[in-house]
Structures are given as structure tokens and as C-alpha cells.
Design brief:
- It is a single chain.
- By secondary structure, the chain is mostly helical.
- It is built from 22 helices and no strands.
- The longest helix is centred in the middle third of the chain and has 32 residues, at about 270-305.
- The radius of gyration is 22 Å and the shape is globular.
- The termini are far apart.
- It comes from Algibacter mikhailovii.
Amino acid sequence: MKKSDKNFYRENRKKSKEFKKREEYLEHELSIMKFRRWRIHLPFRDFNIELEDWVPALAATIGKVVMVTAMVAAFAAQFGLSPEFVAENVRFELLIAGGIFVILFSAILNPRANLAGTHGPMIPLIPIIAAAGGHPLALGILIGVFGIILSLTKGGSKLMTLTGVGVRGGLLIYLGAMGLIGQITKFETWTSNADSGSVSFAVIGITILIYAYLARIKKRWLAIPLCSLIAGLVAYSMGMNFEFTTTPGLPHMNPFWWWGETTGWQIGWPNFGHFIAVIPFAILAVAMWSPDYLGHRVFQELNYPENTDDVLMDVDDTMTVSSLRQIFGSLLGGGNIASSWGTYMIPAAIAKRPIPGGAVLTALLCVLASIFGYPMDLAMWEPVLRIALIVGVFLPLLEAGMQMVQKHNDSLSAGTCIFACAFVNPVFGWALTMLLDNMGLIGDRNRSKELSLKEKLIIPGIMFIICVVSLALVGQLPGIPGIF
């Protein structure tokens, strides 16, 4: 950072009481921050920590516990590992990846790189990965290597630029709608199994009313902590059982323990065959990153004021951070597969806050949750985690997608994208409709005429081929048996 830039934020900062509305103050804060790639940034010199930063921090911590638990539990089920192993590995991920990596990369070195979270779409593929002879460490290393290659070649930002508005909107609508339906279904199933079906009706009904009111008064950034808290209280008051089981402590910190023959994962270190087995899955994981990262940056673009480019999430740098976190996290013993942290970015963008302030608080909360243990139980309780994901991720995704689809041509691209996503999955839907949209076969034909041959056909075509081949290899295309 240049010397003239170091004092820019402090010299131009104003107190919140100088503004008529809190929103005006937050937008002014965004407009005077000048983040630079891979330079030292410090709290109160280059950014401030506000009350609103607690919202994405709480949401991110809840989301981290939920998603990492789901990821590690899926691996544990395939390798015959105990629930105690899952809790220990989640605690390890919270301490190392959730704490140290977040502070170092997204708060200090590069505040334009979003936090490295969990790659949710990979969870259903874990049984296939294990059946193919995959090894979690081999998978993590290859995902990191492929991700660094994509980020260094600026492939992520290029793909984002080539994804038209209609395709973006369709992708967000599909992800939001499917996720919303999935979370409601899982919550209703949980209450039905406990012979308390009325609990899901009461909790979701109250959530709808609170969320609608928050949207009306333009306080949606409060949705995750407020709705999750009320959901937990309502469920508990209606007789749903809850108890703390994870006691305070520290996880194992020795990689040799985690990757031992009789300790940790109990599968030892990977061999060459393990790396070969996970190649298609690693390619697919990185191919999935672009639409995921695209959706997160869109929230900043929709909620931030103009002339705030210096605080917008950088897709390529986020890929670099996720890749590094993936490699080191896996080497140390973690079972998480990394991606852009959606449960952080979405509420942070809605609250009009930049990345670093909430990142500091997120790291603090993750470390505390890891050490004390009990907050992990609360975050994983069904009413809390389901409502947090509904109001913090999937409803905002759905709303953002609907906001983007305003023109008739864009609605055609969005409809095709939703159709293709439903036919196979979001990766296939995004790759196919990006190719068709850029070629002018759907969507805005005038936009297609302005693109070069490379932008119109070559890059989208190569991306489509990579996605289709990767999906075919792992058996994710309907009616086509996988090789692995």
C-alpha cells in the first residue's frame, strides 16, 4: 500500500452521528476504504469494526459448524469413524481454518478475498469419492493445486465476466429455491420423527413474519441471529429436546496423529493411486467454484453503493486463499473441502459491511466455539441451523436472482439455466447456459455481438467440456454410468 493510501481512510472517516441515517454512514465507510492486494491492513487504520459486523460473524460461525460437521460426518460414515472423531475434526477446523487463516488472509493480507468456507455441493459426492478409492488428503491437495492454477491465470474473474445477467439470475433462483425447499423438508422431517409436526409449522410461520418485517424496515441483516434465536426458543418452549454434549478442550494438533494408521482418520498417508482416483473430483470441485463465487460477489454489487470497487470481493484472490487454506488445512488433518464462505458474505453484503471487520470477529467466535465446545451443540441443533440457512443463505439467493431478472431476454436465459440445473445440477446448468448465452442462442443477442470469438465460444466451450467430462467421469450425468 502506498504511503499516501495508508492514512486515506482515517483522514476521510466521519462519525456516525454526522449522518442522518445509519445506512448513509455505512455507505460512506465503504466509499473511503482502499484495500490493496497482498498488503498489510490493520483495524482502525484501514477499516473499522462496527456493530453490524457481528451479524455476518455470528452467521458465519453457525454456518461453519453446520457445514463442516456435514462434510466430516459424510467422510466418517464412509470410513467407519465415530461421532467423537467428527466432533474432534470440526473443532480442529474451527481453530485452525476458521481462526488463524481468516485473520491472516481475509482480515490482514487481502481484505478483498472472501473467507474460505465449506464447499457444500461436494457433500453428496463424498460416498462416490470413497467408493472410488479416494483419500481426503489427496483430494484436498489436488483441489488446492487446481484452484491456484485457475486463480493465477485469472480464470475465475474471466468466467464471472462472461456470465450474463440472465444466467446469473437463473442460477441464483435455482440455488435459492432448491435450498429453501430442502431445508424446510429436513426440518419438517426432524419434527415429524419426534411426533411434533406442529413445531415446524410454528417455527417457520414465525420466521416468515419476522423476516417480512425486517425486510420492510430494511433490517434484513439482523435475520440470522434474530430468527435463529427465536426459532430455538420457540422449539424448546414447545417441548423439543436440547442438551449440551461437547465439553471444553483443544483438538489434536499433530498431523501425524490425524493421518496415522490407527489414529485420527485411520487410513494413513495417501499413495500415488489415491491421487489418481480423486483427479476428476478435484476438477469438478474447482469447476463448481466459479458459479459459487459469482453468486457471493453479486450480493455486494446489489447492496453496495457506486464507486466502491476497492472493497468488492476479488474472485481470483478468493480462489487463491481457498486453495491455500485447502492445502494446509488438509495437510494438518482437516476434513473440510473449501470454497467461498457464503454464510459470511451474504449477510455481510446485506449489512453493507466490507470483508475484514466481520472476519476478525468471525475468527474470534470460531476459536471460542472450538475451545468451549458447547456453542457447537447449539449451532448444530436443528431449529437453529435450518432457520439460519433459510434466512441467511437461501432466501437472499432467491431474492437476488429475482432482482437480476428484469428484462425479457434475461428471463429467457434464466429459465433455460433453471431447466438445465434441474436436469443435471447447477454446474452443468451454469456451463451450458453461459455457452448458449454468449453465442447469442438465448438471451441478449446484442451482448453476444460485442464479444470476441474467444469470449463467445472458446472459453465457454472449454469450460462446458471440462464440466461435462468431469461430471461424466464421476457418474453425475443422468443415465451415464461413472468410470470412477
